[in-house]
Amino acid sequence: MAAFTVVPGRLTAKSPGVSVPHQVAFFDAPTSGASASPASTRFLQLGASSVALAALSGRSRSRHSRAARRAQPASLEEKRFPVLSRRDAPVGTFPKMPESVHPGVVSGKALVDLLNHAKENGYAIPAVNCVSSSSINACIEAARKMDAPIMIQFSAGGAQFYAGKGLDTWRPQDNTEFHAAIAGAVAGAYHARAVAEQYGVPVILHTDHCAKNLLPWFDGLLEADERFWAVRFIYVYNSKVSRDHEGYFERHGEPLFSSHMLDLSEEPLEENVEICVKYLERMAKINCGLEMELGITGGEEDGVNNEDANPEDLYSKPEEIYQVYDALSKVPNGFFTIAAAFGNVHGVYQPGNVKLEPTILDKAQKFISEKIGEPEGSKPVSFVFHGGSGSDIKDIREAVDYGVIKMNIDTDTQWSYWNGIRDFEAKYRDYLQTQIGNPDGKDKPNKKYYDPRACIRSAEDSTVKRMEQCFEDLRCVNVLGLGPPDTPKNVMGPRRGGLPS
Fold it and tell me: How do strand 304-306 and strand 298-301 relate by DSSP bridges?
């Protein structure tokens, strides 16, 4: 059974104890074996009629031709703000995607189906570390341009920066560790949710490397997921059959993030697996996915330096990968990916300094397929490719052929963002020295050139261009079936956002 594929008795069309379709009943009870609370049981009873209507509506929509379906932009009548709305279901589907996959942030069954679709169709999804709303926008813009899904992820350091360097990382008054890193990741997630549907592509929200010393950050993120799952209560005021019913509460029915990564690769394997199982059991209750790391990714990233790592630790063994797969597959409703080491290194180095061996992934797939009785050629594990920046196209494509469904890219997009700013400064240098006065005249104002939006947009354009190459390398192009996007009509005059051409 494939990683990130739901095993029998777990996430199914009808979850245990719930009599409505999972994809319609976003508020259904967790399926980890815990009994539903009286409040949730009562809510399911009260919500039956609305769920039935939603199900009928879904069946009606399914009769239309898949080829005619298209993720439409928000209309004036239906402004799609998923963070704030009480809408029961996502809007839109894709001609080439499974029914569950929709525009906006995907989680649960939609996430599982999307990643399985990638593996079955021989492509992988770019995963970009973002540190600002600008970098998020650039990545999603690139995804729409390439007619593809995208993964937005945050490291602890990147999330802290997102919250603002003026915010304390640690708050001694309430002993809350990683306060800024938690707040920044949550802020980035809400921003991504607010804009993802507007762009009309599937977005996976993810957090990157979490080592053992960062577990308080991980705990804070899971608390945010659980709060987003069950977000608000409405109390009793009268006995009418309305929103005033006792115990009535609304749920988003999904976690804030699609998935999270635990990187316990520096710990003994047994401890790594034990902690991952413990967290996956908690995450499975809210349909949140787990990525775990096995073996060490070399190089340096976000303050984690593995440049002197033991070379043996850079390459995982099939038996170790199976040990992880076997343990995590036993978690009810759990779904996961494995970042196995096959010589991966963070950063960009001179050619020949990094020796990737994607065949390690192929050997692991064959070993595990035999162990679990899958036919030859099966790919039971969904692998993750860390350290994708600067990698040879041959190694990238080979890794995808062996079951990689996601590749991290950070160093190259950092450079592309900076390069856009650098090019802008070089092009308009004579207009950026003073507020007034340039080659066009000593009394000419330079506001439209030093307006931060001007250089930031140049950085975004440069990043979109670099991302296009990444999508091409991963064969993640035209996989949604939307066709090319329309030219955006958000360009205004100088006083309302117009920028130098």
Answer: antiparallel
